[in-house]
Amino acid sequence: MTYVIFLTVGIFTLLAVLYVYHTRGKYSTVDAFLTARGTLGSWASAATVFASIMGAWILFTPAEAGTWGGVVAFTGYAVAQALAIIAFAVLGPRMRRVAPHGSSLVEFVYYRFGGPMYAVTLMVGVFYMAVFLCAELTGIALAVNMVAGLPLWLTAVLVGGGTLDYTAYGGIRGSIFTDSVQAVVIVPALLLAFIATAAAIGGPGALLSSVREIDPALLSFGHRGGWDFALTLLIAVVAANLFHQGFWSRVYACRDTSAVRRSFLLAGAAIVPVVVVAGLFGLMAVAGGTLEVPSAALFEVVLTAAPAWVMIVVIVLAVALVMSSTDTLINAVAAVFTVDIARFYPGTSPQTLRRWARVLTAVICLAAVSVASRGYSVLYLFLLADLACAAAAFPTFYGLFSERLGGRGAVFSTLAGIAAGAYLFPDPSFTRGNLLYSFLLALLVPAGIAIFLGSVSSSRAVDLDGLSEKVHDIKA
């Protein structure tokens, strides 16, 4: 198993480095290093978007949801993840029209709303992406430790180091290339593992029969807990991914707005069956009587019920999933800060900007590896980041369509949403509060305030048509 992990990381890293070296003459500017602007067609963009949103969470959360929330929970999770991507098919073309030469979401916010709202969205977005990155590396480290006994730090260093090699060297094009390769690996590997495991426990008929005997509510679409979970995720996942800079980079990487629409719609549609299949592992763990730790349901059922070779497939799948999401996250956070350096220090040379991009990439990756090597649970931080994103979502993107909401109104409505959501947010032990109501308040309170402030404003806060002259790519 250790050799499998080394080999998988090594192959993905080597392919990416060779590709970056081969194409080094085509991407000579800092802007190309960060966004690969205008280079992707619909299929290539759909592949990189699909692989970027896939991550270690696929092997943990859907199956765990299936063990207690049944088909409603993991189907709702699938729909939430799909809508998070499909939202870019609507907002992406609009962003490209309002800010055709932009690079990042926070850059748009800076010119649209001003410094205070820019600071809010910067903190919200970076916090979310940093927690996501740590969660991905922690997840693969814990999974490999359970299966093969590898120390947490070794897995984190292997996966994080391999990803760092080609991301720091090639920027976004290394990430996009490996995403395309990993997208080809992810779906067949997951299907192969699912079919082999299902066959080992007696097939679909035996699975359904066993679940009906143990807990028939898991197969019912009337499962109340499953619906609460699904609605909570619908808000949290969609809002959080809107602040994922990796997807905004890919909006600008598309050749035109038609490619943006098609690619994000295709990727969103492809997500649903993948998450549903992953969720079915949870039902298999229940049916097979192998469930001990719900978050590790997929690994437990494969270890106890499937042939030994299936776990090798799962480990390859896990590495592909983690590398496809972590390279996007590392590049995304580095891009946010590099664009800001270029804007606030316009005299900075291209060589210095590229050096800063690589240094930031390394620092972000090393910090994530350090957290992952300790095995800390970041679930609560993840939920807090999602809550902040839910509060900031409507004011931020309302500004793409309305000219009357000002910067102070956007900040006030966002902070009001965070405060309202925090009032009902569960404590770390989840003994009080209500997650669904918390996210509903965080979403609806800012929306109501922003719409009201925009409607009573007597003048335009900004000329959206004029933003195209302010928001521009790095001319280096």
What does this protein structure show overall?
This protein is mostly helical. The chain is 77% helix and 0% strand. The protein has helices at residues 2-22, 30-35, 42-53, 61-98, 105-113, 115-148, 152-170, 172-200, 203-214, 224-241, 245-253, 257-288, 297-305, 308-344, 350-372, 379-398, 407-424, 435-456. α7 packs antiparallel against α15. The protein is globular and about 65 Å long.
Task: Produce the secondary structure layout.
Blueprint (H helix, E strand, L loop, with lengths): L1 H21 L7 H6 L6 H12 L7 H38 L6 H9 L1 H34 L3 H19 L1 H29 L2 H12 L9 H18 L3 H9 L3 H32 L8 H9 L2 H37 L5 H23 L6 H20 L8 H18 L10 H22 L20
Distance between the termini: 45 Å
Quote the CATH topology: Sodium/glucose cotransporter
Spell out the helices and strands N to C.
Answer: HHHHHHHHHHHHHHHHHH
Mass-distribution shape: globular
* Secondary-structure content class: mainly alpha
Instruction: Specify the helix fraction band.
Output: over 70%
